[in-house]
Specification:
The complex is a heterodimer of chains A (about 325) and B (about 375). Chain A has about 325 residues and is α/β, with parallel strands linked by helices. Chain A contains eleven helices and 16 strands. Chain A starts with 10 loop residues before the first strand and ends with a strand. With about 375 residues, chain B is mostly helical. Chain B contains 15 helices and four strands. Chain B has a four-stranded mixed β-sheet, sandwiched between helices. Classes of the chains: A alpha/beta (about 325), B mainly alpha (about 375).
């Protein structure tokens, strides 16, 4: 569970025992999820983990086989119309309409939410996703990143309290991805709750206040990136740059756990070790090296520890 | 209401920005009108050509017969007597040619003198099943009958006068263009089936329905706005047709309330049919193929341009199962014949079918994920 506080008034999402089956396949398998208001939650997992099915159930767009969920206090099965008004959604397979411009898209969707946008408000929305210079170009001429930005703008046009972004940066180049991250971070500053699905570990690490790791329809770990690191990693590495193979044997003789990595040596320490003790050993060995780098474990290491595999191109790799 | 309006405006922009959609919705019916108006609007300008091979060396009776054929209103095209006539017909792809045999004059003279064995005979060669052959045959029979009367020194007593239907019909002119107008309007309301089916299939494959479902827009509002647009465009197109008919051909068409009802109901029927086809087809290409399967039989087998009465029985039976038949019949009832009860009956059929297909399109539209 993501939230430590389970007061319903502070929760944007409260899901219990969600199950979605397709024949014998359990796409979502008894999922519990509590998401406090005002945070960015990343549902992290490989393709086929059940992330999109989960958010589509929470969005009210897909029926669960069993279980219950409330979104902003509204039951998803009974309050479809109400949820539409307060939730913004960027679907995974979002594509804009070829023959409408971003400005026309935004005006169109504002109309669907019963809103009439003034010039200033329109300019503000376009600027929030950096599309002001492309506002009057037909959408078929937009780049992949610009299309996703437009998708986020459409998700925000109803001024939602809760925003679902399903794989918002998949397929984008690194520059476009970082530009979208900036837009998503802005949502947090505006106080909105964001549920983000991704298979990019660095994206979850960069954006999320809370991360739920999802594999085969289940959430296998949840928490802030820092708490996950604390809980699931117990080593940190010290890299001595350019110390050479002689340095490796010296350090091993002094009882340190070290491995060679080219001209470098990587010393593995327990997370709880006092670094000054390790650095004292290095100093006493009298070794010559060009630099010392402390390498913190990442969410990728957490994922590897929990799942026993890495995610590459969205797929699990042993 | 604001959601429907927002969807209507956005969809309208997309639809009209599609060159194919705007051409076939607005320009195509006008093009049809110009073509049919140009061809049939002035019957005096229509000329039927009859090829004649006179083997009787310009004899009096043979020349009289040729003159009588000419006076039926057709153009005579002489064929060289040295030509093999059947080969000539094949090589020039002509529907029919009349051959007057050598000795025709003498044979006629002999028969006139009382020789019962004399058989003056002219031959009409060609594709006997073609409509053009049959028209030429009528002209030749008219000329032969006239020659027989002359030879018998008799005067024709009974004759025929053609008269239009000015009283009780909506069209004061009773012109040929008036007959084609219902067909052109029929094609106009039928044609969006192509665009709508392709758009519906595209909406599904590009996940636009799901995108729409993420907003407060409801399914019935979506269907309503899409239908309203096509109905509105049908009326704009109808007005264009009426305007062009007036400006180009000087024909004034007055749409009756039943005709207006038929255009509205017919547009709903065919836009709903298009949406249902698009929703049921797995791919946009399949939707286009299905639309073709529906469109072309309806275009040609429902009396759109050719009266069903001249069609074979099985086509007339098939037409009963094609919705455009009732639309065309209803429009002709009210615009050409002034038959109010017939028009209302056809309007009722079209309206019921519109409701049925609208329900089918709503049922087949998967708004939310399964």
């Amino acid at each position: 569970m993501s939230a430590t506080v389970e007061d319903a008034s502070t929760l944007a999402i409260e899901a219990r025992g969600l199950v979605k089956t397709y024949g014998d396949l359990r796409a979502v398998d008894g999922l519990d999820l509590l998401v406090p208001k005002g945070i960015i939650l990343a549902l992290l997992g490989p393709n086929g983990a059940g992330k999109t099915t989960t958010v589509e159930i929470l969005e009210g767009l897909r029926q669960s086989t069993s279980g219950s969920a409330k979104v902003l206090g509204q039951d998803i099965t009974r309050s479809y119309e109400e949820i539409r008004q307060v939730v913004g959604i960027l679907p995974q397979d979002f594509e804009p309409f070829d023959r409408l411009t971003p400005r026309e898209h935004i005006r169109y969707f504002a109309g669907l939410f019963g809103r009439s946008l003034g010039k200033e408000e329109m300019a503000q929305i376009l600027a929030s996703v950096s599309l002001q210079d492309r506002a009057d170009v037909h959408a078929r001429k937009l780049s992949g990143g610009e299309k996703r930005k437009l998708g986020i703008a459409l998700a925000l046009v109803g001024n939602p309290q809760l925003v679902f972004l399903d794989e918002p940066t998949t397929g984008l180049d690194p520059a476009a991805r970082r530009e979208l991250w900036r837009v998503i971070e802005e949502l947090r500053r505006e106080g909105r709750t964001v549920v983000l699905t991704t298979h990019y570990i660095e994206e979850a690490e960069a954006l999320a206040d809370e991360v739920s790791i999802m594999v085969r329809g289940k959430i296998v770990a949840s928490g802030s990136p820092a708490s996950l690191l604390d809980e699931y990693t117990d080593t940190k590495d010290i890299r001595l740059v350019g110390v050479g193979s002689e340095g490796l044997s010296t350090l091993i003789e002094r009882g340190l756990t070290a491995t060679s990595d080219g001209e470098d040596v990587v010393i593995q320490t327990a997370a709880t070790d006092d670094l000054s003790t390790v650095l004292g050993h290095i100093s006493q060995a009298g070794l010559a090296f060009r630099d010392v780098i402390t390498e913190r474990p990442s969410l990728e290491d957490v994922f590897l520890t929990i799942v026993g595999a890495r995610i590459e191109e969205g797929e699990l790799k042993p | 209401m604001s959601r429907t309006l927002a969807d209507l405006i956005a969809y309208g922009k997309q639809y009209l920005r599609s060159p194919v959609a705007s051409f076939f919705t607005l320009a195509f019916p006008v093009v049809l009108l110009l073509v049919f108006g140009g061809v049939f609007g002035n019957p005096e300008q229509i000329s039927l050509r009859v090829h004649v091979q006179n083997l009787d060396n310009g004899s009096d009776y043979s020349m009289d017969l040729v003159d009588y054929v000419s006076e039926t209103g057709v153009d005579i095209v002489p064929v060289d007597p040295r030509e093999n006539l059947t080969n000539f017909i094949r090589e020039h792809s002509i529907p029919a040619a009349l051959q007057i045999p050598k000795g025709f004059h003498e044979e006629v003279g002999s028969a006139k003198a009382g020789n019962l064995t004399a058989r003056p005979l002219v031959t009409l060669y060609g594709d006997t099943s073609s409509a053009a052959f049959q028209a030429i045959e009528g002209a030749v029979w008219g000329a032969v009958t006239r020659l027989n009367f002359v030879l018998a020194d008799a005067i024709p007593v009974v004759s025929v006068e053609n008269q239009g239907l000015p009283d009780g019909s909506a069209q004061e002119s009773g012109s040929a263009l008036g007959f084609f107008l219902p067909g052109i309007i029929g094609i106009m309301v039928l044609t969006p089936i192509f665009m709508v089916s392709a758009i519906s299939a595209e909406y599904r494959t590009r996940h636009y329905f799901k995108l729409m479902a993420t907003t407060p827009l409801r399914k019935w509002e979506f269907l309503f706005s899409r239908t309203i647009l096509i109905v509105a465009l049908a009326f704009v197109s109808t007005l264009l047709i009426v305007l062009v008919a007036w400006l180009v051909f000087g024909e004034i068409f007055i749409l009756t309330p039943i005709a207006i009802g038929l255009i509205a109901a017919g547009s709903v029927l065919f836009v709903a049919m298009g949406m249902a086809l698009g929703n049921l087809a797995k791919e946009p290409e399949a939707a286009s193929a299905l639309a073709n399967v529906v469109y072309f039989p309806m275009m040609f087998l429902t009396g759109t341009f050719f009266p069903l009465e001249i069609m074979p029985d099985f086509i007339q039976t098939t037409a009963l199962f094609l919705p455009l038949t009732y639309f065309n019949n209803g429009l002709r009832d009210t615009l050409v014949f002034g038959n109010v009860s017939g028009a209302l009956g056809n309007l009722a059929v079209v309206a019921v079918l519109a409701v049925v297909f609208f329900a089918l399109s709503a049922w087949s539209l998967k708004w939310r994920a399964e």
